[in-house]
Design a protein that fits this description.
With 470 residues, the chain is an alpha/beta fold. 42% of the residues lie in helices and 16% in strands. The chain has two domains: 191 residues, Rossmann fold; 266 residues, UDP-N-acetylmuramoyl-L-alanine:D-glutamate ligase (3-Layer(aba) Sandwich). It contains 21 helices and 19 strands. The chain has a ten-stranded mixed β-sheet, with helices on both faces. A seven-stranded parallel β-sheet has the order 3-2-1-4-5-8-9. The chain is elongated, with a radius of gyration of 26 Å. The structure holds ligand NAX and potassium ion. Its EC number is 4.2.1.136, 5.1.99.6.
């Protein structure tokens, strides 16, 4: 966003004009959503405070009852913040006075996301008062780069930011302090490359069969099963893929697991593989294959991955398919293609991308770098799942529930993504669809959730998204 602002300024746009647009947007946002009550505006010394002064004068024009407090005296303000303060003709009171002043709503215009040290003294005390808070840019006290509180910080009911979402608005723990986030368009032409997951992003692209579509036109998903003692993961993924709409789903099974797989599968087909060539042949007939869930950390799994990534078939790689490359991750990066999806949890991510999480400012940056390195779509699982494509576009999914932290949950996620890819959805969109549908399924089950419950929720959820009554 900084680059886009700089381009605008060098194109002749006055930075104070931008601040006025920002402050006016804040006033509109606050007035529309918190239409009643006395407003206490808390201003910092920089641009964030400047937005606060503009908003305060605009809110007063809307006949709102407004008091303004500032961390520094009016005469110490500089640049745009000083110009903005000049718009406020009444008193600017010292910040300490705010502690005891009557109010209903606080407008937190103290600091933006560039804050470099923890809040102290009066500011820290104000942040801990509770009550109804609306924050400008980010709740003050949040480090916008790491998306973590630097110490005490405001907890907002709503946050208004400008031009585009930043990681702190969607990544935990910062996102939990933001409340509802509104992105105001102030004329900064950024191509938003960070989005929050929602059916609004992809609902219209959910695949659905036409009246005369036959199953072969809905794609073929293959899922590679582990050995006899580890077959459940593949079946969870396979059934989820079928529910997501893949026309055909086949579990590819080693000979020792055929009986156990056969006794548990009905609509999902089963095919035996005993040697490398069998897997290669079977994978080539599929549109997409899921490899990794309970596949085993073995040379067979590695060979199967190499076979899949050397074929025309798209890949969804998870768990053991990633772990087998733990000591040779560059080989995996070289094989992966832009149409592939990998779905590591943090441990697997570290195995194949080293210390990227520690060396990046936050999870969004780390996942973006990973997608660029691997040249494929990366879905980093967590309470705030991040999906990134090699071009830098990222989506964060917070539509989930803690009850999803259970055995087999990730296999279902991979299965839904595979089912969508089978039907022609690109890997990035399929990952976004899958993480939201997975989260929604989890929320519908709630406490007591086991992974077998998840795919059963899909018909109702998908019907609702398609606008069909059941
Ligand atoms: N960049 C732009 O052109 C625009 C910026 N806007 C606003 O400007 C804000 C960014 O402005 P700034 O870069 O001035 O940043 P801030 O408004 O966050 O202010 C930073 C100032 O606070 C001081 N400071 C940092 N931590 C402190 C602490 N713990 N205790 C006391 N003082 C501390 C710093 O020394 C610095 O002087 C955004 O958040 C947004 O609200 C908007 O007006 C839109 C346009
Ligand atoms: K703020």
């Amino acid at each position: 966003m900084r680059d886009a602002e700089q381009a605008l300024f060098s194109g002749g746009l006055d930075s104070f004009e931008l601040m006025q647009r920002a402050g006016n947007a804040v006033a509109e946002f606050l007035h529309a959503n918190w239409p009643e009550g006395r407003i206490q505006v808390l201003c910092g010394p920089g641009g964030n405070g400047g937005d606060g002064f503009v908003a305060a004068s605009q809110l007063a024009k809307l006949w709102r009852d407004v008091d303004v407090f500032c961390l520094v005296p009016r005469e110490d303000l500089k640049g745009d913040a000083a110009k903005a303060a000049a718009l406020w003709e009444k008193d600017i009171r010292p910040l300490e006075d705010a502690l005891e002043a009557p109010h209903d709503i606080v407008l937190d215009a103290l600091f933006g996301g560039g804050l470099s040290r923890a809040l102290e003294g009066t500011v820290a005390a104000l942040s801990q008062r509770g009550g109804r808070v609306v924050s400008i840019d980010v709740p003050s006290g949040i480090d916008g780069f790491t998306a973590e509180p630097l110490g005490p910080c405001f907890r907002a009911e709503g946050t208004i930011t400008f031009a585009a979402l930043r990681p702190a608005h969607v990544l935990l723990p910062a996102a939990a302090y933001c409340g509802g986030v509104f992105v105001a368009d102030i004329g900064v032409p950024v191509k938003s490359r960070l989005l929050e997951n929602s059916p609004l992003l992809w609902g219209k692209r959910l695949p659905q069969p036409g009246q005369s579509t036959h199953k072969h036109q809905r794609g073929h998903l293959a899922v590679v099963s582990g050995p006899a003692h580890a077959t459940g993961a593949a079946r969870l993924a396979a059934r989820a893929g079928l529910r997501a709409g893949a026309g055909l789903v086949t579990v590819l099974s080693p000979p020792d697991a055929i009986q156990v797989n056969a006794s548990h599968l009905t609509a999902v087909m089963l095919k035996e593989f005993s040697k490398r060539e069998d897997v290669c042949d079977a994978l080539e007939t599929a549109t997409v294959a899921i490899l990794g869930p309970a596949a085993g950390v073995s040379s067979t799994t590695r060979e199967n991955v190499e076979c899949l990534l050397g074929s025309e078939t798209k890949a969804v790689l998870d768990a053991d398919a990633l772990t087998v490359f733990g000591d040779d991750s560059e080989a995996l990066h070289k094989l992966l293609r832009p149409s592939d999806l990998i779905t590591p949890h943090i441990g697997e991510f570290t195995r194949i991308f080293g210390d990227l999480l520690e060396t990046s400012s936050n999870k969004v940056d780390a996942t973006r770098k990973a997608a660029e390195i691997a040249g494929c779509v990366v879905l980093l699982k967590g309470a705030d799942t991040v999906i990134a494509s090699p071009d830098g576009t990222a989506i964060v999914n917070t539509h989930a529930t803690r009850w999803l932290a259970t055995a087999g949950s990730g296999d279902v996620l991979a299965g839904i993504a595979g089912g969508m890819i089978a039907q022609g959805v690109d890997a990035f969109t399929a990952a976004a669809m899958a993480s939201w549908l997975h989260g929604e399924s989890g929320r519908r089950v709630g406490a007591g959730l086991i992974s077998e419950d998840l795919e059963k929720q899909l018909p109702e959820i998908l019907s609702a998204l398609h606008g069909e009554k059941r």
